[in-house]
Amino acid sequence: RTADHNINYSRGLQYHYLQPVFGTGARAWFDFGSNMQLGVAGVLGWNESEDSNDEMSFGGWLRYKGEKFNAKATMYSGSEGSNDGGFGGFNGFSSPVDVNVFAFNIDFDLGEKANLGFEGTMMKLDNFTTDGTGGEANFNGYAGYLTYKWSDRTTLGARFEQFEDEDGFWFNSGEKITSYTINVDCRTGDNGKVRFEYRSDSADSALFNSDSSNEDSRQTWSVSYQVRVK
What we know:
Layout: H1 13-18, E1 25-32, E2 36-43, E3 57-65, E4 69-80, E5 97-110, E6 114-126, E7 136-149, E8 154-165, E9 175-187, E10 192-203, E11 217-227
Antiparallel strand pairs: 1-2, 2-3, 3-4, 4-5, 5-6, 6-7, 7-8, 8-9, 9-10, 10-11
């Protein structure tokens, strides 16, 4: 979703650890029936506008869109990172990494004012070591979203997420990070709104920076103003 339609201000665990922010390339899709869509895409790489290696990455999706229910399954696969030791788009990797991702999204309306959504992502990395021995790492995450239209100008939002590093690639083996987010949107006109957000993150170990020492939890308050340009 675009920032204007994302119910939260801060980036979630799914987006931060398991999904690219952008891709530069081309995509095509085919609609069959009144509700189904099949699509494919080819991109230069994970978060790259200039390819850091000689291989493109590919993805695809299958989507169902109904009046009150939507569902989408997505896959992404490619060799990411640099071939020459430079900066690679996938988290800056200076050597090739085989990345495979599968994700699904579903959402449905709860009456006229509320919408409930679920998201799940699984990622597998192969061949990420520089000594030629290869390696494997697995990650997974899931999230739930709820929006409620309190009035014509006020919308409430909530998000729950959990991310797990199964093989200790970024953190300790089996490390889990959990996040709760609550926000209030107040429209100031047809194209503008003020967003108030509270977020609480926690982990199995001390992962978050603080003034004295690392902590196993953190709380964040934020206020933003968004303008949608048509």
